[in-house]
Amino acid sequence: VSYIGLEISRDALRGARVSGAGRSIAVYNEPIARMSLQGLVDQLVNAAQAVDGTGNEAARAVGVAIPGIVIGSKRVSMSANLSMLDQVPLADELSRRLGRPALLENDANAAALAEAWQGAGRGGRSVLYMSLGIGIGAGIVMDGHVWSGSNGYAGEIGHLQVEHGGAPCGCGGKGCLETVAGAAGWARRAKNALRSRTSILSPDKLDPQTIVNAARDGDSVATEVVNEVARAIGSTLATAVTLLNLDRVVIGGGAAACPLLLEKVVAEAKERTLPRAFAECSFKLSELNDGAAVLGAARVARVASMFGNGAPGVASDVRR
Ligand SMILES: [Zn+2]
Known about the structure:
The chain is 38% helix and 20% strand. By secondary structure, the chain is of the alpha/beta class.
């Protein structure tokens, strides 16, 4: 028995056929067809067919991880990068064309689900996955179930405020975690420091990976940036752990999610979390990395195969 997981990301369409135990049997990874909605839907169908098996080996259902808010596991209400998907009944369209159930899930939620199932969060009851990138995404899995809130906005940890009167954020707020710990936040802090101090950093290359490497080499400007980012992330996670009694926090999303940052994040969180809650929580780096959302989408497909397309809202329950 197998399931297909697909992931639409900023510039790639990834997919895999995954066994019930979580093993990838076939994979797909191509640049995304951005030209039109029809082109994108065609590519999703092609990707599913490319990884599918034949006869008894055919996948039972399809799950798709999407960079946007997903309503009732069926349609996308808001996607910053792919506005062409807004309000399109994508799950029903894919189900019709592929002849089997299909459901959607937000990409950070799908990654959280995968980490809770097969990754650094496995064994946890209350798992928060945070992804560090251009933006800050997060997904919360409670008792095996994605917690998406009343309207799908739960987990928007990047928009919790960490600096009163801080830099403006894309959401309309000011001083959100994303303005400090998103890639542009790292660059802005480093650039400010470089005005008055010497450093091995160059003002035209201030991505998180470069800054982390410079901090490892002992550069004081880079170290200060990593410390400030870690403080902002650590204090936000402290709030989440205290509020939700999490037992696993998983940090992923690329170069910024490294042991050096994690160590500083944990030290900050320890200072700010209710001590008994902190003692019960482990903080880990992602084990699934780029493969998390596809695997989570396949897990969503597994539920779709049990409940069909007529079961909005149950897509993410890993207990079933
Ligand atoms: Zn914001």
